[in-house]
Amino acid sequence: MTAVSDRTSGESMNAATAILAPTLGRGLAESPALITNEKVVSYGELDALSNRFANACADAGLKPGDRLLIVMLDRPELIYAYLGAIKAGVVPVAFNVRASARDLAYVIEDSACGMLLLDGRFLPLYEEAVAGLERRPRVVVSDRDVPGYDSLAQLMKGMPDAFEAVQADPDDMAFWMYTSGTTGAPKGTVHKHAAVLTADHYLGEVLGVGPGDRLFCSSKLFFAFALGHCFFGALRLGAAAILHEGWPSSDVIVQIVERHRPTVMFSVPTFYRNLLQDGAAASDAFRAVRHFVASGEKLPAKLFDRWERVNGRRIMEAIGATETIFLFLANRPEDPLPGSCGRPTPGTEVRLVAGDMGEITEPGVPGVLWVRMGSIAKGYWNNDEKTGEVFVDGWYCTRDMFAMDEDGYFHHQGRSDDMLKISGQWVSPSEIEEEVMLHPGVADAAVVGVPNSDGLIRLSLFMVPSDHDADQTALAAEVQEHLTATLSIYKCPRRVFPLDELPRTVTGKVQRFLLRQLAADQMGVGN
Fold it and tell me: Which CATH architecture has domain 420-523?
């Protein structure tokens, strides 16, 4: 169940150098590092551009430890600015380009950023965000000249291509990420220089990523899934990262795969399902992808089977977090288990904990997953209380519920705060959803708990039919009959609501709070 964690030697390092140096040291400076529809950037060019930005940071008066807030689309400029900042000892913070003005204002204040680098299209958002702020950072526009603002071209003009990277302790902070803020204000997650070394494990040791590979992730670079695997991991292992500026859709993903032919693809189950429905999964371009990885939401076993049958390859379900950057549980190409998140990735230790029961070692008993690995964050900025709750002695509490089977595979049971107590018994919505998805007439499903008129929590099931013209009343009856035959009666939802699609976040996670409100409204009770 466990593996040996990363250990750092204590010798000084720089995360940006650790990302680029292995490939440059192999004499592969001319190899492609970044691929877009418009151009290809080599490792040598990326190194020189990041050095120029590092010099620009120093020239602008930014000092080691200062924060650089980045609000940009996925373009090469984001990558070389990010690496250049780290080389200069400056801490880059890539932020959600779809965030609200309120969240941007909060992050500007919370991070006390010395500079904000943003695309021109986000200037109205910035101006709305800072309308009520006393302190404003220096703003640099990345893609155009705008009166009253500095431009990235001006900032880098005349800067040398060489820079001696600032050395730091492996445990010093190198970059931040902000959590989504779905349960409160966004939290600044502080990551150390040594975190990037974890890229070698799953990507390198398990998937065999190396020079000549091309990696694509449908998620954007301000998400850990993309940042860790298609930025840090791809570049540290000598592969090329495929970048796309726009927001992902099935049509866009098809265009990217057909044009750039990735060898490893990362996406969410929703997109894999859509690609099957559109017929793209059977194309030559998708059949040429060596590995498919899914994260962000549960991958139904039915979807796994359909993809393998149509495409010929398997989708490897995995899970990671903002606080870990990299995946901590993942399936392997040679022995994936449909419906599971796989086993601990190389270099990762895990344990399941269930309140007064302590650590769980027997199969089938659910508990909260704790993780220890080389890329665990140092903590949350300016939030000692939350840091103390989830970061303990090198371990991180994921707040995700899992059960381990007899073969060491971990099965996601939902978030610990999603667990429901029905008739005095703990119920996992994930378990019910998995049973519902076995019905061929169901394309998607989610279960939530809603108080009835007496204030007692009762289960509601939301289903997306595979055929929207089907008799939904008959479908609901069939599903309920199946659940009654396979699950304990207290796990069987009393109400079933059809939907055209489930509400999801930009990362593909079901927005259960919206479903709870919808169910409460339809039932005529308060939520």
Answer: 2-Layer Sandwich (3.30)
Q: DSSP assignment, residue 416? A: G
Query: What CATH number belongs to 13-246?
Result: 3.40.50.980
- Decide: helix, strand or coil at residue 57: helix
Specify the CATH number of the domain 248-257+266-418. Answer: 3.40.50.12780
Q: What residue has token string 């703990």?
A: 426
> What's the gap between Cα 94 and its chain centre?
13
Task: State the pTM of this model.
Answer: 0.82
Between CA 114 and CA 101 the distance in angstroms is 19
Q: Report DSSP letters for 193-228, one per residue.
A: GGGGGGHIIIIIIIT---TT-EEEESS-TTSHHHHI
C-alpha distance from residue 314 to each of 264, 317, 408, 430 (Å): 12, 9, 20, 22
Q: Give the Cα-Cα-Cα angle 115, 119, 125 (nearest 5 degrees).
A: 80
Chain position carrying tokens 């270099």: 347
Look over the chain and give the mean of its residue pLDDT values, rounded to a whole number. Answer: 91
CATH 3.40.50.12780 domain locations along the chain: 248-257+266-418
Which sign does the torsion angle of CA 328, 329, 332, 333 carry?
negative
CA 315 to mean position of chain CA atoms? 17
Q: Mind giving me the DSSP string for 87-128?
A: HTT-EEEE--TT--HHHHHHHHHHHT-SEEEE-GGGHHHHHH
Query: What stretch(es) of the chain map to CATH 3.40.50.980?
Result: 13-246
Contact call for residues 335 and 309 (beta carbons, < 8 A): no
Instruction: Pick the range with the lowest mean pLDDT from 355-369, 411-425, 461-475.
Output: 411-425
Under a CB-based contact definition with an 8 Å cutoff, are residues 519 and 461 in contact? no
Residue 357: predicted pLDDT: 62
- pLDDT over 50 (residue 1): no
Look at strands 379-380 and 188-192 and give their pairing: antiparallel
